[in-house]
Structure formats: C-alpha cells, structure tokens
C-alpha cells in the first residue's frame, strides 16, 4: 500500500471521527436545548401560577374590604375590562373612599348614553355633595338610598342620613322622616315618632307641620287625643293665613258649644273667604247654631282680621291670645324645648281682646313664615275627608 492509499484511509478515518463527534455534539446540544426549553417552560408555568396565586390573593383581599387592593385591581382592569374596573371602584366607593367615588363618576360619565350608568353617576354625585354640603344634600342622598336609584336600596342607611339632616333642623328632612314613620313602605311604622318630628318642624314655625301635629292631636294618631293642643297648633297655622288650617281650626270648635261655635265661625268665615269650598256650608251651619245677631258681630271681627292677614301684618299668637281672653279658654303655649310628644308645657294667658271695635288693633308686626314648596297630601285623614280644597 503506497502512501497515497494510506493518506486516503487516514482522511476517511479522520472524517468519520469528525462526523461522529459532530453527531454526538449535535445530540448533546439538542439535549441541552430541550432541557433549557423544559426549564423555561417550567419557569413560565411557575411564574403564571405565582401570578395567579398573587391575583387570587389580591382578589381575596379586595373582596374582604382592602381598599388599596380594590383600587389596584380597578386601575389594572380599567384599560381592558370596563365592567371589572367599575366593580372594584364601586366596592371601594361603598367603603367611602373618595378616590373610588370620583373614579366611579368618571367611568360612568364616560358612557352617559347608558341610563343605568347615568343613574349611578348621579347617585355618587349626591354622595360627594352630601360629604361637602349641608343637610339638604344629606336628604337627597338619603332619599336615593331609600329609592335604590343608582345604588342598591339601603333603608337603614337612607333613614340615618335623613335623620342626620332632620337633627340639623332641616324642615324638609323633618317632614320627610315624619311621613316615613307612617308610610306603608316602612317595615316598622311608628306614629309617635312621626308626631315628634312633626312637632319639631312645627316649633320652627312650619305651617304644614303645624297642621299635621294639630290633626294628630285631634285624631289621636301617635299621641293621646288632646283638643287643647290640637286647637293651638291648627290656630297658630291658621293665623299665618293658611286656608286649610283655618278650615281645620274651625272644625275643632264646630258643633260643640256656644263659645266653640263662635270661634269656629270666625275661622270658617276666613277659610271660606280664602277659597275653601267646604268651609262655606260649615260656616253657614255654625252660623245657624249661634244665631243671626251673633253672626253679625262675628263677621265684624273676622273681616278686619282677613285684611290684616292679607297684608301679612298679624303677629304670632295675637288671635289665639285674644280668643283665649275673650272666650275664657284655657290657654296652651308649647315650651321652646317641647320636642317630645306628650310633655306638659307652661301655659299662659294674656290680655288682648278682640272686639268689633278693636280687631284692627290686634297686631302690627309681620313675622316671617317659612313656606313649603311642595305641600304634602293629607286627604286620607278624618278631618278633611269631606273637604274640597
């Protein structure tokens, strides 16, 4: 064998060795890459599991009231999942977080074409107003909770807010809470509490409240029947010129005795003059009981009173005190602190007689009276069942 053959054989052997080494190296590389791929896959799976566990933990914390986590999850979902973001913001908002409340409003306002979201935005706007505003804002928010507008109905929370406004002597709230305690929707009605809130508003010179508490005393709803207190509250409302109150004040004395009928005639005459249709027939009926001569005198007393009322020149209690003196009625005037129904208060009588000659001199000062913008309807009560206003 010559050297050329030896070289060829050697070359072939070398080539075979290289191929074998390359094959084993390639196999080794594949194993390394496969192992690396498996490790990366395991890492990704472990990372995903860790993230899932972390999110699960965050969700749990958020669901159990952790506000920071709720805000984190909401912000995380805001760009990709509107409903989820709103859900977490609302949870934090329900825990009185101001950032969440404003975020709910912002999200809802971004889709104002949706009636449900628009209602939610309005509700949370009332929450912000109640936190920053006065009792009227608390009343509006409380009503929203009662009605379930923009939020799940929450009677307890709604009543608490309205009561807070009422405690601040906000008369619309006091009237509302009084209505609530006798409402059919109230699972725990309480006529006595209704009377107490009506009394508190009445003490603030609210005419509607004065009529309400007067009728409650007259009919014994939530309080013991007390004609003296009923008469006072209806007459003090009637003094302000309220036609309904004048009619009811007249009914208190009608068909009782000579003195009662005389007082009733004055109030019924005023009510009829102010447009109460039912007062006309009742006035004529009472007039028949007292007689023609008495009617002439009573009319001469009532006419100047009507003129004074029309001009707003009647001082509070002027007519009441004069009637007490003229007809020797037992006087009743509630104490300034008489907020609990049934308390006895100090009474007093003053000398300020009404006659045909001095009726025009009864009073000279105008007192400011607060008016109710939206009068309540009391047509269900006994006293006005036959009245046409």
UniProtKB/TrEMBL annotation:
<protein>
    <recommendedName>
        <fullName>Sel1 repeat family protein</fullName>
    </recommendedName>
</protein>
<keyword id="KW-0175">Coiled coil</keyword>
<keyword id="KW-0472">Membrane</keyword>
<dbReference type="InterPro" id="IPR006597">
    <property type="entry name" value="Sel1-like"/>
</dbReference>
<dbReference type="Pfam" id="PF08238">
    <property type="entry name" value="Sel1"/>
</dbReference>
<keyword id="KW-0812">Transmembrane</keyword>
<keyword id="KW-1133">Transmembrane helix</keyword>
<dbReference type="InterPro" id="IPR050767">
    <property type="entry name" value="Sel1_AlgK"/>
</dbReference>
<feature type="transmembrane region" description="Helical">
    <location>
        <begin position="6"/>
        <end position="25"/>
    </location>
</feature>
<dbReference type="InterPro" id="IPR011990">
    <property type="entry name" value="TPR-like_helical_dom_sf"/>
</dbReference>
<feature type="coiled-coil region">
    <location>
        <begin position="36"/>
        <end position="63"/>
    </location>
</feature>
């Amino acid at each position: 064998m010559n050297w050329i053959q030896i070289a060829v054989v050697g070359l072939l052997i070398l080539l075979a060795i290289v191929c074998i080494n390359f094959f084993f190296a390639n196999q080794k590389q594949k194993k390394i890459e496969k192992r690396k791929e498996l490790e990366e896959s395991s890492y990704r799976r472990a990372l995903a599991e860790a993230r899932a566990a972390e999110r699960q933990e965050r969700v749990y914390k958020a669901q159990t009231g952790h506000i920071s986590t709720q805000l984190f999850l909401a912000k995380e979902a805001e760009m990709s999942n509107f409903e989820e973001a709103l859900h977490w913001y609302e949870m934090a908002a329900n825990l009185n977080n101001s950032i969440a409340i404003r975020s709910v409003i912002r999200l809802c306002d971004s889709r104002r074409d949706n009636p449900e979201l628009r209602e939610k935005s309005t509700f949370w706007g009332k929450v912000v107003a109640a936190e920053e505003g006065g009792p009227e804002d608390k009343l509006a928010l409380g009503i929203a909770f009662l009605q379930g507008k923009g939020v799940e109905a929450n009677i307890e929370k709604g009543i608490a807010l309205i009561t807070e406004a009422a405690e601040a002597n906000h008369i619309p709230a006091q009237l509302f809470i009084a209505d609530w305690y006798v409402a059919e929707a109230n699972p725990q009605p309480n006529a006595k509490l209704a009377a107490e809130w009506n009394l508190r508003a009445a003490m603030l010179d609210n005419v509607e409240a004065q009529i309400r508490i007067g009728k409650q005393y007259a009919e014994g709803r939530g309080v013991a029947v007390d004609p003296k207190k009923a008469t006072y509250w209806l007459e003090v409302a009637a003094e302000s010129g309220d036609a309904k109150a004048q009619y009811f004040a007249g009914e208190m004395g009608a068909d009782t005795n000579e003195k009662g009928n005389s007082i009733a005639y004055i109030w019924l005459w005023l009510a009829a003059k102010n447009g109460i249709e039912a007062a006309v027939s009742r006035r004529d009926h009472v007039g028949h009981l007292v007689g023609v001569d008495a009617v002439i005198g009573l009319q001469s007393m009532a006419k100047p009173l009507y003129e004074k009322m029309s001009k707003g020149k009647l001082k509070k209690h002027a007519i009441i005190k004069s009637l007490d003196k003229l007809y020797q009625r037992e006087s009743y005037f509630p104490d300034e602190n008489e907020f609990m129904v049934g308390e006895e208060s100090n009474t007093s009588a003053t000398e300020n007689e009404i006659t045909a000659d001095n009726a025009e001199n009864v009073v000279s000062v105008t007192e400011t009276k607060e008016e109710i913008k939206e009068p309540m309807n009391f047509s269900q009560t006994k006293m006005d069942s036959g009245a046409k206003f």
